[in-house]
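With this grant's support, we have settled on a layout for protein records. A representative record follows, to show the layout.
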Amino acid sequence: MSESQVAPTSRARKAERYATTLALIVTLGPLFYGFEGMVLNGAIGAVGSEFQLGSLAKGVAGAAGIIGGLIGSVIAGRLSDYIGRRGVLLLVGPLLMFEAIFGALCPYLGGYPFLLFCRIVGGMGFGAATTVAPGYVAEISPERIRGRLISFRQLAIILGLLFAAVANLVMTKIAGNSSAEVFLGIKAWQCMFLCLIVPALVYMILMPLIPESPRYLVSKGKIQEAAQVLHRVSAEEDVQAQVKSIQKSLGETHQVMGMFAVLRSKWRGLVFVGMALAAFQQLTGTNGIFFYSNTLFEAVGIPESMAFQQTLILTVFKIVGVTAGIVLVDKVGRKRMLMYGGTLIFVSLAVVATVFTVAPKGPNGPDISNNPILGFLAVAALCCFLLGFTSSWGPIFSVMMGEMFPNQIRGSAMSMASGADFLVNFVVVLLFPYVVNWSPAVAYWIFFAFGVLAVIFAKKYLHETTGKSLEEMGE
């Protein structure tokens, strides 16, 4: 009988509580990711006016963080094999703080080009955090609750979005608009950036409190230190046996493998599966579905001027979805959650695509403003999409990325999978506005097709990892 099928002992419950605390600390990096994205969303109009930017330049400002995230993700996983998971996560805080402070001061320090630099630096920070955090949490989590602890990453991103939306609303209410002055010549959009100091500072204060990953310590021959950490985070009684199992999983040399070595190894197919999983997460429309959200809400009587109310409605569905994912992931299983959630995703996308297909044409594309039935259908589909994504492909991609790779290749494999995630995200954000301006219906039918392919892919190529130890992944 596996550990997940028996009632936990008092020692196991103590280990689970400690591991949960560590997971909550580590997910402050992904929280900053969501916070930063929403801050820019609220500030981008004022930034465009401040620096007299065209639509392309504003798009570049938006994409700069993703570019930084791509750089950070590619470097971080492999770097964590050299300086440790904890070592990389400790480097993240200063990068986040740099963007928070100097992003706000960019009008005095080089203008628009310096703002791009700040966003890239901050992106490197949250790219590293969102790459290494799932692997770290997987390596310190008891098997019984590993899935739910890694899933905290998605909840942290959502809460970051909500907190930033509140901060943006407060700043806008105080100043009147995001371009107005708040105090001492500092404008509201600059204060929005300064709000990033709060999550960055909390992250920097708490991160030194976490221990190093026991799997990393074993790979470096620090057996006694690894045993001490395992004694606190593991539900197993025989810690020395677990250390030996980790040593065996690392092979005779006890060394981890670089990217090129991984691509030449027997596990290259597994890495490609992880990269494809990352690509499908983005190609199911998680960014594109919100492009027309204002239009959809206006059709049911919630205008763009009530943007905060829209955000609250969407956030409620996101939290319900991710909470369901956290509760069910260790019970239902990763693969089945991806398939069930993926089915809800592509059905929802089909409804949105159908609405835009049958809607009458207006001067700015499909017009559903005078058809409340189509409007309610589209908004309901949007909310169902959120439930499907945030309960499955959103959090479970992180779970799979953190635990599906063997100990020998986890750092390098996480870099490649997370790099694929940021790269496809960049491509979708870059191309989607052009496709949707040409034909919204075609754009959402494309997402629908990818949603169907994602479910087929999950069924055919993914192996269930629920109930298995990390040392079993190599098998």
Q: What stands out?
A: The domain at 1-210 is CATH 1.20.1250.20 (Growth Hormone; Chain: A;).
